[in-house]
Amino acid sequence: MFINGMDVSMINELEEAGARYFHHGKETDIFKIFKNTGVNLIRLRLWNDPYSESGEAYGGGTNDLSTTLLLAKRSVKNGLKLMIDFHYSDFWADPSKQHKPKAWKKLTGEKLNNEVYQYTLSVLKTLAENHTTPQYVQIGNEITNGLLWPDGHIDCFTSMVKLLASGIRAVREFDEKIRIVLHLDCGSDNRLYRDWFGRTADYGLDYDIIGMSYYPYWNDSLEKLLYNMDDISATFAKDIIVAETAFGYTTDDLGCKGMIFAQELAQKVPYPASKEGQMQYLKALIDTIGRVKNKRCLGFIYWEPAWLPYPECAWTKEPGYQYLENDNGLVGNSWANQALFDKYGNANPVFDLLGKVNIS
């Protein structure tokens, strides 16, 4: 199965704000739109406790287990496979930040390792009890610099690997059929991937897939992505997935604060910032994936295609901003012009492409 995936972790918050979605002019549940247009996998991020001590939501989708379960049920109901992305944090985790959950703040060593194991196992049991067992599990999100800092920072490499191994062990013991993903950013950086996975190879981590984020305006060319996918899949005998990607259909800020995709970034890529250009980019990415030797790239996941320009649906609310210690001021809706739906919720032409993907 070639994976046409979508990460729609924000969708519950968006729909609560009034977001509606249309395909060829007809309002349709977004999960049905996905199913009807060739999407076959939904990726959902999971935060431990995305609320302040006083119970205020951090924002960004409020992706606790209850929200994740709600979205998982909708995915399965529509015949879509699941990937659960454990951030092992109460809020956003990426190469610039990997905060320990509040409840784990004082845990170190084997106590922290055991908590990762128990938490991972508990989540999987809850999902299974609700008939939403995932086919794929990500252990950490963009763990280029490790996870659960400071204990699992990449500078504490052995400790980092033990934490990853604890999550992996929980998945394997729960269901050996679940495929395990380790995910870094900057998918065109061959040296990064050779070094990171080369070092972890010495520890014998038991995983199946290497996830690569690839954003064309931040990373290098598709040719370098292809080279990296070929080299890394062969070197480490692992499948690859482009775990995150996106491209803007306009440089208009759509009335939102702090839009990431603006003219400066648009000038870095050979595709116009238009609906047609968005489709051109995704077609080029799919074609590139199809050229990976021995079909080792499984497909791609588009990041937050449904994030419409509702200003209140932001990266973070004030409590989350404080939790992240002022994470570069990303308090607004900064993603809406990279959605796969226009500002009114109409599906962009790219969905006509997805149903035609045929890489076997």
Task: Supply the key terms.
360 residues, alpha/beta, TIM Barrel, eight-stranded parallel barrel, 11 helices, globular
Structure commentary:
With 360 residues, the chain is of the alpha/beta class. It has a single domain, classed as TIM Barrel. The chain has eleven helices and ten strands. It has helices at residues 11-16, 30-36, 65-77, 109-129, 157-174, 190-201, 222-236, 263-266, 275-290, 318-323, 350-354, and strands spanning 3-7, 22-23, 26-27, 41-46, 81-86, 136-139, 179-184, 209-213, 239-245, 297-303. The chain has an eight-stranded parallel beta barrel, surrounded by four helices. Strand 6, helix 5 (157-174) and strand 7 (179-184) form a beta-alpha-beta unit. The chain is globular, with a radius of gyration of 19 Å. The N and C termini lie close together (7 Å). The relative contact order is 0.15.
Helices and strands in order, then pairings?
Blueprint: E1 3-7, H1 11-16, E2 22-23, E3 26-27, H2 30-36, E4 41-46, H3 65-77, E5 81-86, H4 109-129, E6 136-139, H5 157-174, E7 179-184, H6 190-201, E8 209-213, H7 222-236, E9 239-245, H8 263-266, H9 275-290, E10 297-303, H10 318-323, H11 350-354
Parallel strand pairs: 1-4, 1-10, 4-5, 5-6, 6-7, 7-8, 8-9, 9-10
Antiparallel strand pairs: 2-3
Helix pairs in contact: 4-5, 6-7, 7-9
